[in-house]
Amino acid sequence: MRDQSDLEIFARVVRTGSLTQAGSELGLSVAVVSKRLKRLEERLAVRLLHRTTRRVAPTDVGAAFFERIAPIVDAIAEAESLVSQTATRARGTLRVTAPSSFGRLHIVPHLRAFFALHPGIVLNLELSDDFESIVERGYDLAIRVGALESSGLTAVRLAPVQRVLCARPSYLDAAGRPQSLEDLRGHVCLATENQNPWRLVGPEGPCTVGASGPLRTHSNEVVREAVIGGLGIALRSTWDVHAELRDGLLEVVLPAYAAAASAGIFAVYPSRAFVPAKTRAFIAFLKQAYRSSGAWAEG
Questions:
Q1: Residues 122, 94: contact at Cβ < 8 Å?
Q2: How far apart are CA 93 and CA 99, in angstroms?
Q3: pLDDT tens-digit profile of 47-94?
Q4: Which domains does the chain have, with CATH numbers?
Q5: What does each C-alpha distance from 281 to 114, 121, 127, 285 come to in angstroms?
Q6: What is the pTM assigned to this prediction?
Q7: DSSP state of 219
Q8: 3-class DSSP assignment, residue 23
Q9: pLDDT of 33-49, one tens digit each?
Q10: Closest Cα to residue 96, out of 125, 120, 129?
């Protein structure tokens, strides 16, 4: 393994917020990471990091320093990959972030096959429903579900997404089955805070419906378990509840309405002239896996 520069070590510590994790990704011990950071601070005659027992965070000066050196560190890594064996061989640590539910259901089950194909890759997979900055956190790749907004990132569509209104049959037996969007006003509608109102497409075209009910949450996992538990009606992706719909645990409500077709499952990564082989390998693997994954990808 090549000798990492002090700047690279500092950038990785800031991005991970941990000496231990940074050392693990770089193949260095915590003691070496700490020593190299101390050497960098002594050379610059400034304190770059606040260290606690739980987390490491940059000082004001350290944050400003990181903003300036991070692009340089990334450019050096890209240049080295371009002229080394990693240009053709997938190897090294791949940092990926993905939504919690999707990662649990549709990434983790495929990892055994992925590692068998690419034994030289170490995958650092972070599952979170927070849309963190890929560049600032140093992720190589992010999996995004939904409709993407404009950004300076590159996006590859991995699979389509179909979202349907659904509920547990026992809930509908008790509360009644809606016959129109207006009927939803008399029902418990379950949605995360950032997915309210529901944006649907029906016979009359695009429309929005405010989801109202006693539950407030930012967690998709909470909404999923709530609708399966019979609390109300939810707008869910078929990749998330396909098995429950197939087995009759959930029932589609108002089948003429669904979420906009522009939504999809995307692999998003920083726009660069050269994309590392490890990133290309993971994207290609997921595209193939989802192509043969079955009915959830088609709705």
A1: yes
A2: 20
A3: 999 887 677 889 999 999 998 888 888 777 766 666 655 555 778 889
A4: 4-82 (1.10.10.10), 90-159+262-291 (3.40.190.10), 161-257 (3.40.190.290)
A5: 9, 10, 20, 6
A6: 0.66
A7: -
A8: helix
A9: 999 999 999 999 999 99
A10: 125
